[in-house]
Amino acid sequence: MTCVTSPGTLFDIDKVIAELGAGEAEDPQLLQRSRINAIPESATERLQMSLAIDEAALELESCNKAINELKNRLARLKKCRRNLIRRKGSLLSPIQTLPPEVLRLVFSYVKRPIEASSPESRRIRIRSPVFGLTWVCAHWRAIGLSERHLWDDYMVDWRSYRQFTPIFRAFLKECFEVRAQKAPVDLELVSSILTPAVTPVLDIVLKSPQRWRNIIIRSDNSNYALLDHLPVT
């Protein structure tokens, strides 16, 4: 992680201060008269005073803009610093020094079935603690994705949901065919009724019967229509 500040946002503080203070030397007599509350006597002096007030307002606006920009830069730098401290602590964590074979053993204790379900009729999701392992860092992700036994246990429940998006099917296919590789798999299928929308999902998990280690089928009705889709004789 690198903290980067755009060159276009940099301020030369000394230059800004010099520019803002330059106006004080333009007409010292006018400034001196204003400091003692002398009333401008001529139209020229009144015009000069009005112009000086307008210029001071513009300089004040520029000064406020510079201050706000510096505050924003400081906030970004503080955030970057916090992230670097957090990353440093993570990199110094003892688990980062574990050999890959030991880390794989640790990962095996996190393994749970990859569950595709939609509780309370909400949008269907794929959940598993295994996913969290692949989100920690690139090192953990590489090891997690290379361990096919972490991706060999599936439970698909569509009793409350009968529509599967292309993104859902693509991710389930990646887990089942790419991440699990050729590993034997455990399947649990929980159904109510079979609809055409379910068929593409069944095509993913049922097309390789030679990989089945265990398969469990549960149904809310007694006809078990799902059995007709099993590629066995």
Report on the architecture of this protein:
The protein is α/β, with parallel strands linked by helices and 233 residues long. The chain folds into 2 domains: 10-92; 100-229, no CATH class. It is built from 8 helices and 5 strands, in the order ααααββααβαβαβ. The chain has helices at residues 13-21, 28-35, 43-91, 100-108, 129-133, 138-146, 166-179, 199-206, and strands spanning 114-117, 125-127, 153-157, 185-191, 212-219. A 5-stranded mixed beta sheet has the order 2-1-3-4-5.
Number of domains: 2
The total count of strands amounts to 5
The side-by-side strand order for the widest beta sheet comes to 2-1-3-4-5
Query: What string gives the helices and strands in order?
Result: HHHHEEHHEHEHE
How big a fraction of the residues is strand? 5-15%
Q: Describe the biggest sheet?
A: 5 strands, mixed
Shape: elongated
State the low-pLDDT regions, or none: none
The secondary structure category is alpha/beta
CA-to-CA gap between the ends? 56 Å
Instruction: Compute the number of helices.
Output: 8
Roughly what is the average pLDDT, rounded to an integer? 77
- How large is the radius of gyration? 34 Å
